[in-house]
């Protein structure tokens, strides 16, 4: 079966295309993309009039947590996939910090197989960098890579030992594997619950200083440079961290950076009267730091925007701020967050889409993330200006801990395709 999508606004950051046109899908792949006002594909078995909606590659998310295995009450691969597709995310990487930790071949295979069985989105497992994420012994990186792990990470917990980190990076480099690391020095960040500064002090809360991120970044990029390992600095929050990565890149290091979508939207003041849905790690920083991240995104200095999806049930969030769990549900709000920034004039449309399409695809070497002949027909139709009110009770994620709850956003996915088949329609 073949499908022609006509009367669309074609948006493809990979080719810098922003023009009216249409797309032809055959056997689950993109067969042809044409731009123009009178595009037609007479050979199509089926035709869909997009009605002027934007047609773009499906989003690719490099960082999402689920509860499966061991914490299915938080999220399963199936519920995460459903939420992701409603937000236009057609591929996502599952973090290894589950119970048990995804740190061996059997569990990598379990995630891959469960993803194929229960999820309509493409699910990619990330393997634990160290055994049990304990930071003491390197996990079976080579065997997990052969089993399908697309990267290796210690999740939310940076590897404290530089020796263990160097050993893991050296081995990962020898296997062509990617390491993703949270830049953090836990001896500085300690038990902090929000950004360190005047606002935290006034609220009597312990802070997480930016220096902890800088020190962690400097150590990890230095080790990446020395070992030749491909490194992703996970969820950076400051320009100085981006500068550390850029300097290392200038010396030949293979370093990429990601930013959580919510860090582009919120600042530390959004915690307000101890709002635990805004308790995330790394924390929301100052408004000036937020604006700096958005400017860096516009300049192309950030490689990927991630959902940082971390579902937490109400009993883990409805606690005093110091006791509440870190984490925010994010799969359904990545695109609206970016489109709201576009509507407010802080980002251009193609610059907003690049770090959620071709950016992460290029890092992982995936064929999707672009509108090109032969690429998988993982695509979305969306209205970038459609206003809506985020209500956590209407989110499809099993856990509803969204900092966007009650926020007015713009941009809504109307239809999502994976392999040329409709998997979500609003």
Q: Which descriptors would you attach to this protein?
A:
eight-stranded mixed sheet; alpha/beta; Urease, subunit C, domain 1; TIM Barrel; 24% strand; six-stranded parallel sheet; 2 domains; 13 helices; 426 residues
What's the architecture of the largest domain, going by CATH? Alpha-Beta Barrel
List how many beta strands DSSP finds.
19
Number of domains: 2
Strand-residue fraction?
15-25%
The CATH topology name of the largest domain reads: TIM Barrel
Q: Characterize the overall form.
A: globular
CATH superfamily of the largest domain: Metal-dependent hydrolases
Would you identify the regions where 5 or more consecutive residues have pLDDT less than 50? none
C-alpha Rg, in Å?
Answer: 21 Å
Q: Percentage of helical residues? A: 25-40%
How would you characterize this protein structure?
The protein is an alpha/beta fold and 426 residues long. The protein folds into two domains: 2-55 and 377-400 and 409-425, Urease, subunit C, domain 1 (Roll), CATH 2.30.40.10; 58-364, Metal-dependent hydrolases (TIM Barrel, Alpha-Beta Barrel). The protein has helices spanning 77-86, 105-118, 141-147, 162-174, 186-189, 198-202, 210-227, 239-250, 287-298, 314-317, 334-343, 349-353, 358-364; strands spanning 2-12, 17-26, 29-35, 46-49, 54-57, 59-64, 89-94, 122-125, 127-128, 152-153, 178-181, 194-195, 207-208, 230-233, 255-260, 304-306, 379-389, 408-418, 421-425. The strands form four sheets. Strands 1, 2, 3, 4, 5, 17, 18 and 19 form an eight-stranded mixed sheet that branches. β15 (255-260), α9 (287-298) and β16 (304-306) form a beta-alpha-beta unit. It is globular.
